[in-house]
Specification:
The protein is of the alpha+beta class and 80 residues long. The chain has 5 helices and 3 strands; from the N terminus they run βααββααα.
Length: 80
C-alpha cells in the first residue's frame, strides 16, 4: 500500500482536530494516523471500504471451482 505523506497525521493531532482528518479523507480518500511515528490507523471513506470489501461473483466462482477441483475426492465421499 502506498501512503501519501500529505495524509499522515499524528494521533495527538487527530485527537485534537479530527475535522482535519475528515477533511484529508474527503480530499485524498484516506488518512493515516501515526502512533509513536509509526502508521497505526487507516481512515478511509465508507463508500470506498464497502466497494473494496465486496468480492465479485466472478472471484467467488473461480475460488469455488478451484476448491472443488482440489478436493473432489473428499466431496465425493461426503456426497455418499
Amino acid at each position: 500500500m502506498k501512503i501519501d505523506t500529505n495524509t499522515m497525521v499524528s494521533i495527538t493531532e487527530a485527537n485534537q482536530n479530527f475535522s482535519k482528518v475528515a477533511r484529508l479523507v474527503d480530499e485524498h480518500g484516506t488518512a493515516v494516523i501515526l502512533k509513536n511515528n509509526v502508521p497505526r490507523y487507516l481512515v478511509i471513506d465508507f463508500s470506498k471500504a464497502e466497494n473494496d470489501s465486496v468480492a465479485s461473483d466472478e472471484d467467488i466462482m473461480s475460488i469455488s471451482k478451484r476448491l472443488i477441483t482440489q478436493n473432489r475426492e473428499a466431496y465425493e465421499v461426503l456426497a455418499k
